[in-house]
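Dear colleague,

Thank you for sharing your sequence with our group. We've completed the structure prediction you requested, and as agreed, I am returning the results in plain text so they can be pasted directly into your records. Please verify that the sequence below matches your submission; if there's any discrepancy, let me know and we will rerun it promptly.
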Amino acid sequence: MRRQHPIAGFVVDFAIERARLVIEIDGGIHSLEAVRLADQSRQKEIEKMGWRFLRIDAETAMSKDHVMATVCEVLEI
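Please find the predicted structure tokens below.
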């Protein structure tokens, strides 16, 4: 897993390159309309390149075990 990984001019929070999975940790600011719309647009562009997205709210991300379990579930490990 790579942190602050660039993908086609965008920087994502985390990326698992072999699985083409982006993990974004979203804090409270991501609930603002303008930020939410920008996130959606950016996500669509990255998904067009074959990447999948996993968005986790910042509070949930504080639980490492929960994040790892969610990632494993998405990757079907």
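Summary note from our side: Strands lie at 2-7, 10-16, 21-26, 52-57.

Kind regards,
the structure core
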